[in-house]
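[retry 2/3] MIC19 protein: previous attempt timed out, resubmitting with same input.
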Amino acid sequence: MGGGGSSTRRVTFEADENENITVVKGVRLSDSVIDRMKEPSSPSGRPQSQHRPASGTVNDEELKKRIAEELALERARRDAEAQKRRLFGKLLERERISSNEHLTRAILRERAATEEERQKAQRFAKQLEEKDRELKKHDAYYKEQLARLEERSAQFYKVTTEQYQKAADEVSARFK
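[retry 2/3] MIC19 protein: success.
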């Protein structure tokens, strides 16, 4: 059974030597189909007409009809299963596409955020370098100013010390 395929098969019916069993060639039947065929009522729920001879043989036409019904039911069941699988496959594909799109958007957002953080870090690094250069300039300026002030202070100290010494010598000379 091709599961919904449209290929045709040749099926032959034969009676065995005892005329009790009909042999179907070219068709594979599952145990459940064979069990259903043995049941006294048809799969559709309506009772079969009892055209069986007393010897227990089955009418060929009835058996052919029953097999055809079973084959049609089996084909319909497989077609329904195939349709369900196709539908489920489509749903899975849509879900996969949706999750891939969501993942792609999340990755792009993360990349954009990472790039923004990298640019912000570069700006802060440049600002820090600028502040560092400015601080070094100020440091050099203040050190220069401090050196000048220390030099002036030393000069004032020297002049003041000389003037004090001179004034002390003068006072000492006057009172001697």
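[retry 2/3] MIC19 protein: Helices lie at 31-38, 60-174.
[retry 2/3] clearing retry counter.
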